[in-house]
Amino acid sequence: MDSDLTCPQCNSEHVYQDGSLWVCPECAHEWNPQAAGEPAAEAAEGVRDANGNPLSDGDSVTVIKDLKVKGSSLVVKGGTKVKNIRLTDGADGHNIACKIDGIGAMNLKSEFVKKA
User: Fold this and answer.
1) Does domain 1-42 have CATH number 2.20.25.10?
2) Domain boundaries, the chain
3) How far is CA 2 from CA 7, 16, 22, 35, 83, in A?
4) What burial class does residue 23 get, using C-beta atoms within 10 Å of its C-beta: 0-12 exposed, 13-18 middle, 19+ buried?
5) What does each C-alpha distance from 98 to 87, 89, 90, 92, 109 come to in angstroms?
6) At the topology level of CATH, where does 60-115 sit?
7) Rounded to an integer, what distance in angstroms lies between the CA atom of residue 25 and that of residue 14?
8) What are the tens digits of pLDDT across the range 20-75?
9) Strand ranges across the sheet with 96-100
10) DSSP string, 92-111
11) Cβ–Cβ under 8 Å, residues 61 and 87
């Protein structure tokens, strides 16, 4: 572990490496030390919805098809409106973090939403 590396958000010294990212267990912040100084919006630059419209933090989107929630019997119905999205740099393609009423916090792929 790199002893002089601290979390840029809470300055905790208890950080660990997970793949190419560093993770802070105290505040759950993840970052890439090589990309230091880049805002999160630039990291998620070019995120577009199913129709090709650019998305940004704080946008409202509508789910365009029924989506099964992995590990649950819940389904996010097509037409569900999601407010105040946050763009993330999801390695598995889930590049939208949001909170859906009745389901809770989850990640979505931008290919399954359209800008509202």
Assistant:
1) yes
2) 1-42, 60-115
3) 12, 9, 10, 17, 39
4) middle
5) 9, 13, 13, 16, 11
6) SH3 type barrels. (2.30.30)
7) 7
8) 788 888 888 888 777 655 554 444 457 999 999 999 999 999 999 999 998 899 99
9) 86-87, 96-100, 104-108
10) TS--EEEEETTTEEEEE-GG
11) no
More confident position, 17 or 100: 100
Per residue in 53-91, is it b (16+ CB within 10 Å) or e — as a string? Answer: eebeeebebebbeebeeeeeeeebeeebebeebbbbeee
From the list 54, 68, 72, the residue with the least C-alpha distance to 108 is: 68
β-partners of residue 22 are 17, 31
- Tally Cβ neighbours within 10 Å of residue 7: 20
| Alpha-carbon span 16 to 22, nearest angstrom | 6
Residues 6+ away with beta carbon under 8 Å from 35: 43
